[in-house]
């Protein structure tokens, strides 16, 4: 069996809010498997909906940039926040975003092999290594997203915690509604939905939730169990699907209802096409 460490117990506690002793017991029963341990606690009714994100294990920054045609998101990681706040590191990340806007790479792997636009004798990856040598810490360009703008979509970007958490939302149906898109981006930052709509929830995730729900109501009549399970699945959908979450600035409406109200005001059909929520270390 995998050894149960103090760090594992601490991570499980941070993800579930359950006491250290119960977390250790769950990890022992799950033979050290973190996800199985979460299921053990949930089946025992000790942990409710658990987010995917656990401890933050990295530092760094997320930066965005845009022009008329594309929008870029880039994340670079450092070992310490001290280096993440260094001007040399920030300059490196700004250069990454600027070059990505110009070259529009399809993948991060392709991008790091491109010649650095300020010194074409080196690649972006070699430029990164020079920054590592200068700052004395390992620096990784972790992810890069290049979004090609739709002419009838609006894009809202919200940066929180000084670039530690960045959200981008695309609203389809109008090109002049960045304000609405940013309002929803702020909601996404706070409420952390995992899916846009219930239809996107994978079958294996639904099956897992149903199994956990049924284990919590054992011994009741089958018709009652089915109703309770259906209610728990609906609650799960409302918690983790963006369009069904209660809008954070007005909990009397859902995010979808808030968007519908906005659509009527501007007299345009608006829909949330997609969202990106990046957090350092996640």
Structure summarized in a few sentences:
This protein has 282 residues and is α+β, with helices and mostly antiparallel strands.
How is this structure best described in words?
The structure is a single chain. The protein is an alpha+beta fold and 282 residues long. It is 45% helix and 21% strand. The strands form three sheets. It has a three-stranded antiparallel sheet. Helix 1 packs across helix 2, helix 2 packs across helix 3 and helix 5 packs antiparallel against helix 7. The protein is flat and about 70 Å long. It starts with 5 loop residues before the first helix and ends with a strand.
Q: Assign the structural class, choosing from mainly alpha, mainly beta, alpha/beta, alpha+beta, or little secondary structure.
A: alpha+beta
Order of H and E elements: HHHEEHHHEEHEEEHHHHE
How would a textbook summarize the main sheet?
3 strands, antiparallel
The portion of residues assigned to helices is: 40-55%
Structural shape: flat
How large is the radius of gyration?
A: 22 Å
Oligomer designation: single chain
Count of helical regions: 11
Low-confidence stretches: 51-57
Ends: how far apart?
27 Å
Q: State which percent range the strand residues make up.
A: 15-25%
User: Strands across the major sheet, in which order?
Assistant: 1-2-5
């Amino acid at each position: 069996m995998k050894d149960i460490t103090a760090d594992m117990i601490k991570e499980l506690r941070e993800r579930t809010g359950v006491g250290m002793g119960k977390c250790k017991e769950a990890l022992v029963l799950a033979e050290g498997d973190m996800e199985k341990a979460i299921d053990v606690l949930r089946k025992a009714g000790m942990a409710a909906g658990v987010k995917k994100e656990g401890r933050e294990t990295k530092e760094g920054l997320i930066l965005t940039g845009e022009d008329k045609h594309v929008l870029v998101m880039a994340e670079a990681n450092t070992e310490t926040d001290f280096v993440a706040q260094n001007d040399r590191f920030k300059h490196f990340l700004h250069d990454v975003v600027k070059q990505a806007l110009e070259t529009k790479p399809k993948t991060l792997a392709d991008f790091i092999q491109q010649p650095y636009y300020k010194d074409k004798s080196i690649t972006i990856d070699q430029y990164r290594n020079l920054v590592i040598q200068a700052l004395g810490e390992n620096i990784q360009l972790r992810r890069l997203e290049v979004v090609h703008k739709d002419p009838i979509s609006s894009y809202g970007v919200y940066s929180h915690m000084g670039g530690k958490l960045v959200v981008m939302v695309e609203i389809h149906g109008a090109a002049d509604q960045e304000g609405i898109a940013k309002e929803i981006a702020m909601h996404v930052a706070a409420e952390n939905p995992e899916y846009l709509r219930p239809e996107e929830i994978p079958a294996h995730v639904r099956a897992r939730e149903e199994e956990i729900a049924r284990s919590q109501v054992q011994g009741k009549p089958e018709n009652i169990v089915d109703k309770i399970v259906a209610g728990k699945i609906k609650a799960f959908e409302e918690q983790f699907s963006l369009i069904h979450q209660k809008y954070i600035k007005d909990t009397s409406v859902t995010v979808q209802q808030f968007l519908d109200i906005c659509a009527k005001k501007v007299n345009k059909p608006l829909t949330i096409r997609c969202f990106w929520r990046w957090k350092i270390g996640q």
